Amino acid sequence: MNWTILDSAHSLLRDATAALTAADLARPTPCSQWNVTQVLQHAAGDQLAYAASITGRGGPAENPFAPSGVLTGDPADLVEPALAASAAAFATVDPAGTTPTPLPQGALPAGTAAGAAALDAAVHAWDVAAAAGRPSPLGDDLAALLLPVARAIVEPLRGYGAYAPELTSDGTGGAAAELLRYLGRDPHWVSP
């Protein structure tokens, strides 16, 4: 099965990672506790967690919610295998069924699960690009597809510290800004 929403989000994270320089890796991110390296470790770990939930093997080597910030090698060497594992795992999922997830909600309808993995990849692509001072990779078309997924899964996750409280709209921006605010991110955030 080709999950277009997941493929699109994976491309965003892949491209945002490829654009990074060595100087970018220690920059602060919209995830106030983490730098770029830690966000990449978290994002890769999350994709591996989705893959492991589906396949029963190959989970993250470290806790995605306690990233070490120590990166040996190129950032793409961390991110690419995780994206490939996630895509391969989701390719085995029946779109009409349910599939296990690493989320507290457990098994979800397949489309929601793929959307949740896509949401994670896309928002962290935005985090990394924003931290590096690059334009947002998250477009309104993809954000409009991710927003219903976010509304379906995020509220219980806020209790686990996975997302900050929703920000009030300032009336600017399209679906991407709406999605970012819903996830507790300021769409106008710039690296200090």
Automatic annotation (TrEMBL):
Ranges of residues in domain Mycothiol-dependent maleylpyruvate isomerase metal-binding: 8-129
Gene Ontology molecular-function annotations: metal ion binding
Protein name according to UniProt: Uncharacterized protein (TIGR03086 family)
Residues spanning the signal sequence: none
InterPro entries cross-referenced by the UniProt entry: CHP03086, DinB/YfiT-like, Maleyloyr_isom, MDMPI_metal-binding
Organism: Actinoplanes digitatis
Gene3D superfamilies assigned to the protein according to its UniProt record, in alphabetical order: dinb family like domain (1.20.120.450)
